[in-house]
Amino acid sequence: MIIPWQQISTDALSGIIEEFVMREGTDYGEAEISFEEKKLDVQRQLNNGDVVLVYSELHETVNLMAANDFKG
């Protein structure tokens, strides 16, 4: 189920984004991208609708995923 990210607290959303970025890592080859830049990039993708916040009832988890990949 998609959760409207605008309806959760700023602190909660920030924590979700940080956890997502830490899982993904920050090694992008020759171009160094900082943790803060990656967090801002994820936020931009949320703003644009390219990424959605998803709750899994089965696993009772929240995750970010590409909107195109979500099969609700």
Structural commentary:
Helix 1 crosses helix 2. Helices cover 40% and strands 19% of the residues. It contains two helices and three strands; from the N terminus they run βααββ. By secondary structure, the chain is of the alpha+beta class. The protein has a three-stranded antiparallel beta sheet. InterPro entries: UPF0270, YehU-like_sf. Pfam families: UPF0270. Belongs to the UPF0270 family.
Could you outline the blueprint of secondary structure elements for this entry?
Elements: E1 2-3, H1 10-24, H2 35-48, E2 51-56, E3 61-66
Antiparallel strand pairs: 1-2, 2-3
Helix pairs in contact: 1-2
Features:
globular, 40% helix, UPF0270, three-stranded antiparallel beta sheet, 72 residues, Arc Repressor Mutant, subunit A, 2 helices, alpha+beta, YehU-like_sf
